[in-house]
Amino acid sequence: MSAGASGQTTAGRGAAVEAPADDEREGSPAGEERPRSFVDLHCHSSASFDSLSKPPDIVRLAHERGLTHLAITDHERIEGALAARDLAPDGLTIIVGEEIRSADGDVLGLFLDRVVPPGLSAIETIAAIHEQGGLAGLPHPFDRFRNSALAGEREELLEGLAEQLDFVEAYNARVPFAEGNERAAAFARRHDLPGVASTDAHSLLEVAVACTIVPGLIETPDQLRIALRRATLLTGHASYLVRGLTPLAKIVNRARGNRRVRPAAGP
Description:
The chain is an alpha/beta fold and 267 residues long. It has one domain: TIM Barrel, CATH 3.20.20.140. It is 25% helix and 22% strand. The chain contains 7 helices and 11 strands. The chain has an 11-stranded mixed sheet. Residues 1-7 and 14-28 have low confidence and may be disordered.
């Protein structure tokens, strides 16, 4: 294992996870570890314009593959997450989330009750998430293959947003080159922000290939925010060939009338 963002640890897929410290066992029978949660905070369903993964299939695979919490974060929509939440079995919590294209780049919102519209500034988007009692995160900020990343020419803006964020994707399983994730982890460390490992799954093959392991049972945004400070990142990925399915998904969804939600036209 190697040191991760904000003093966290990072493990390869299938690697052993560090045993909890003695204070984590307090209140438990001798030798018995406290429960942990296995969390993926970035996943897409067929409600997104670029995914064909149906909510029932995502829920089934997430449960089979050992996740305890999954945030479904479709682009500018939450109906896929709401459908999945209604289908979740005991032992799996679906967090209603959204990946929002702000005027400055993508922002993740978790624990949402309603859609945050695209096209607001990044700071306005984060404020709208927090108004709902949700958590705001920064996805794939240094992936140079995405024009939605909040870096590059907008890096000064990114630095200014840090104090408003609740977490950063220190590892995104879809980022093709290590440099992008390494820079994201360094950004999280520099600003004392929790780093998470996410799949950003757009296909069923990617469900649960990476996750964030946190101590305790998570039920509320505040519990997750606190627990992320003691996270271990499990950093696997599916074959990068699965990214080739995304253009196909866009074509199929376009034919079905499922297009990207654009910002509302001004007056």
